[in-house]
Amino acid sequence: MMNTKGDFWQMIWDSNANVIVSLYAEEKSQPDVPDFWPAENQILNCGGFFISLIDENFDSDYVYRDFSLRSIEGNRELKVKLISCSYWPDTCSPVKVSFDIINKVRDLKTNRPIVVHDLFGGHRAAIFCALYTMHEQIEIEGVLNVYELARIYHLKRPGIWRCYNDLLFLYRCAQVLLNKYKQSSGIHDSSSALPI
């Protein structure tokens, strides 16, 4: 994994991403999971640019790190925020827990790419991205299509959904989002008012 550290940061630089979401904090206790960022007072050389840690803040559930990526020539700088979640819920967790980190990321109000990664091939990242997309879709379009969203993710990366519970979890989250959207927009469920 260490030999891909430069590739990871090159992707951040090339895509001009300013937010990284890290969903593997639970595994950090494993010695074979090294940090891919520089420590305080350390500069990481990634070929065409240098990376330095500017700030690091901890709270009970999240670690926030701010980085500066500066070109060797010094004519370009990219500020990046990394949010590490000390937990990432699995499909049996309460839905609210899943939306906590999504709301933290949405609060950053970025219009640039967000990089999301996990340790085990993207399953957790896919759930995060699907929930983030659902949140945006309901706010912008006022509709949700969980089936189509899950299908698109599957077509892009077959096997990303490990089991039925993954999809069921997306539907549970969609129900919470729809209820929240109805409440905030004053829409009332009229199903009980239908004639019998």
UniProtKB/TrEMBL annotation:
<feature type="domain" description="Tyrosine-protein phosphatase">
    <location>
        <begin position="1"/>
        <end position="177"/>
    </location>
</feature>
<feature type="domain" description="Tyrosine specific protein phosphatases">
    <location>
        <begin position="99"/>
        <end position="168"/>
    </location>
</feature>
<protein>
    <recommendedName>
        <fullName>Tyrosine-protein phosphatase domain-containing protein</fullName>
    </recommendedName>
</protein>
<dbReference type="InterPro" id="IPR000242">
    <property type="entry name" value="PTP_cat"/>
</dbReference>
<dbReference type="InterPro" id="IPR050348">
    <property type="entry name" value="Protein-Tyr_Phosphatase"/>
</dbReference>
<dbReference type="GO" id="GO:0004725">
    <property type="term" value="F:protein tyrosine phosphatase activity"/>
</dbReference>
<dbReference type="InterPro" id="IPR029021">
    <property type="entry name" value="Prot-tyrosine_phosphatase-like"/>
</dbReference>
<dbReference type="InterPro" id="IPR003595">
    <property type="entry name" value="Tyr_Pase_cat"/>
</dbReference>
<dbReference type="InterPro" id="IPR000387">
    <property type="entry name" value="Tyr_Pase_dom"/>
</dbReference>
<dbReference type="Pfam" id="PF00102">
    <property type="entry name" value="Y_phosphatase"/>
</dbReference>
